[in-house]
Amino acid sequence: MEKMKDADIVIELKHDKDGAWKTDPEMFDWLVSRFGAEFVRDRLQDQIKHANKIFDRGRRLLHIENSEWVMVILYWGLRLIGLYDRGYRNFFDIQTVENEVFIKNLPDAFEGYRILHLSDLHLDIDENLKNVVAKVIEPVEYDLALVTGDFRASTGGSYQMAIDETVAFMETMPEPVYAILGNHDFLEFVKPLEDYAKLTFLVNESLPIEKDGEVIWLSGVDDPNMYQMDNLKMAYENVPDDAVKILMSHSPETWKEAAALGVDFMMSGHTHGGQICLPGGIALIVHAKCPRSFINGPWRHKNLQGYTSPGTGGCGVPVRFNCPPEITIHTLRKG
């Protein structure tokens, strides 16, 4: 156990045997200086409370990927019926999907602007995954790259392999790449991934994206699913009302509030599109409390356009059925 103190806030923290909490005594001070003591306290307490839990208080109550026996049964069940190898091949059959987004007041400079959207990489689930993803991205032309959360496969235990695999993968990506945290990600991922993977995280934060003297605003919120630490009002506190607003939210569960705040386009992931689906892409398990039409691909709510990636990687068991993984290119259009 270690303690972090800031004014009247005292937090007792457990850490993984390979975790940065133990090896970097300045981690806590850095987190507080970046995010504020109250947010850090609440986020880290939730991490301790909910890591490795199968049943949780979050919007998604069941986390079957944290149940080792369910994963073992699924693995051997697929082996016994002869489907595992097929599912494993599907897992690496990453598609490149094009999506057009029409925004009425899009600045002229951003007409045709291409955003590469990765989500749910979970790179530590298989050592071959990062190379396959990098190969798929290599020929793609884009202006901006984003990752909408979930860098590791589990929600608890050691995360060192996930950090290492992400750092190695990001060596293939030109800067800048913007990212948010998912329900599998701890808050202390931010510092090593910003320092060594050259990612820029937005945790209830916004920043302007400039091109030829014109600007759109990119925002990101913390996980709205398990930790429920998303705060859109804080993220948009300094964003002009008439600005074009692009939002990264790990789960599409923030759709109502995003629409109310005038967000133009929201990118999400988390659902994996079901990952293991019936023919026609019918998901057996929906991982988010939102309309079923929001869990894979493009969707709309009032003036809000959204896109939920089925994920670039996957978790639990590295298989997919009737739900291919993807990298997505969103092309912004004026109209």
Give a concise summary.
It contains 10 helices and 16 strands. With 335 residues, the chain is an alpha/beta fold.
List descriptors:
six-stranded mixed beta sheet, 335 residues, alpha/beta, 16 strands, Purple Acid Phosphatase, chain A, domain 2
Describe this structure in words.
This protein has 335 residues and is α/β, with parallel strands linked by helices. The protein folds into two domains: 2-50, no CATH class; 68-334, Purple Acid Phosphatase, chain A, domain 2. The protein has ten helices and 16 strands. The chain has helices at 20-23, 27-35, 37-50, 68-80, 84-91, 129-137, 160-170, 190-196, 232-235, 255-260; strands at 2-6, 9-13, 95-103, 114-118, 144-147, 177-179, 199-201, 205-211, 214-220, 245-248, 265-268, 277-278, 282-283, 297-301, 304-308, 326-334. Strands 3-16-4-5-6-7 form a six-stranded mixed β-sheet. A six-stranded mixed β-sheet has the order 8-9-10-11-15-14. The chain is globular.
The tally of helices reads: 10
Number of strands: 16
* Average residue-wise pLDDT: 88
CATH class of the largest domain: Alpha Beta
**CATH homologous superfamily caption of the largest domain:** Metallo-dependent phosphatases
Quaternary: single chain
Strand residue percentage: 15-25%
| Radius of gyration over all CA atoms, rounded | 19 Å
Q: How are the SSEs ordered, and which strands pair?
A:
Blueprint: E1 2-6, E2 9-13, H1 20-23, H2 27-35, H3 37-50, H4 68-80, H5 84-91, E3 95-103, E4 114-118, H6 129-137, E5 144-147, H7 160-170, E6 177-179, H8 190-196, E7 199-201, E8 205-211, E9 214-220, H9 232-235, E10 245-248, H10 255-260, E11 265-268, E12 277-278, E13 282-283, E14 297-301, E15 304-308, E16 326-334
Parallel strand pairs: 3-16, 4-5, 5-6, 6-7, 9-10, 10-11, 11-15
Antiparallel strand pairs: 1-2, 4-16, 8-9, 12-13, 14-15
Helix pairs in contact: 2-3
